[in-house]
């Protein structure tokens, strides 16, 4: 991280010089510096470097400035400045995590809004809700909730920001309680015109619907209030298998995907290709007690190269183990989603073939691939708790969001990697369709989807309704100045 900061310090922009510049972003930064002088940062400062940093370096962009609001009033000021008719500056909103892999979705060449300072967390025992600021990551949230023996439906790996729920929000307790969007009680937010509102089903029902999956199209969230759930001691493990166990792991995954009926048992697996012998990593979660459930025994009958098992029963200890990708700050990467109902042996065999084929093709083309992988996510009744949401997830169509991903090191290989990821994803879905485990019309999980995914595959029949809500809330299209899937 220190090296990353030092490399950015080579470019220093004097705030006093900004006022003489003419581009919209430079004008916005000048006005913001005047309005919020101690909260605006420029290239060369460590605060700026932290504000624009993303989990995958390819998602970071060198913004003209960054701004760290500390109050709702600050957020209102920022929105009024970037959206002014004589400014109209590009901007991006980043919560604490920075895990969006699509460049420009939470990064920008304009004004980077970093919600770092919104770190309050409050548990209301009477209402059974937890209010969370967007400056927290999910592992920080769980650490605070662990002593209270409660949890919320949030992210599954360390470092992911709480803004995850705006795109759906799959969780380790999704089998039991649904997606993050199904657990939102209210959202405190600043609208594109700078007005602060609290959005709930009984106060702003259309906007409440739109925010549940609609990402950054309607304003900036300053507080998330979610349902609280009792969380007793849990059991969890992370196990790695060598390439020689590929067939055995695939069979165990297929059996679990098709046959599991234990609602508190969830797992996520990834085959990761980094060379000629791709292995598997499997993360196991059981939502009660400190003993492994019998449903996982077939996996533990397979010889493993390593295994880490939660010993304390702590959700926080489990989350600390639950990472698939090494968080290398120099890595570039893109992810995507393929909707799949069940991971049968033929589907998993085909995934294995495509991962290897994509890796070998990249190497043959002298591309700097560092990994090609796919996350397998066999949920059980994940949509049983579905609420009306922009991201429609009907119990009648219980697809799961498998997660193809490519990482590389040379920036010149970005376009190739994007095309390779799209090609691999399309081939996998085409095969899953042939196997009866996907449909061409299945919706794609917004948090994983590649940037060229059309709106109808994200929101289906909701697209026109969302566009109407967007126009009503944001008639001047201020949020159109931010990147992402735009309505």
Automatic annotation (TrEMBL):
Keyword annotations from UniProtKB, A to Z: FAD, Flavoprotein, Oxidoreductase, Signal
In alphabetical order, the GO MF annotations are: FAD binding; oxidoreductase activity
Q: Where is the signal peptide?
A: 1-20
State the coiled-coil residue ranges: none
Locate the FAD-binding PCMH-type domain: which residues? 59-231
Q: What Pfam families does the record tag this protein with?
A: FAD_binding_4 (PF01565)
Record's family?
Belongs to the oxygen-dependent FAD-linked oxidoreductase family.
* PANTHER family, per database record: BINDING OXIDOREDUCTASE, PUTATIVE (AFU_ORTHOLOGUE AFUA_1G17690)-RELATED, FAD-BINDING PCMH-TYPE DOMAIN-CONTAINING PROTEIN
Question: What is the official name of this protein in its record?
Answer: FAD-binding PCMH-type domain-containing protein
Which organism was this protein described from? Favolaschia claudopus
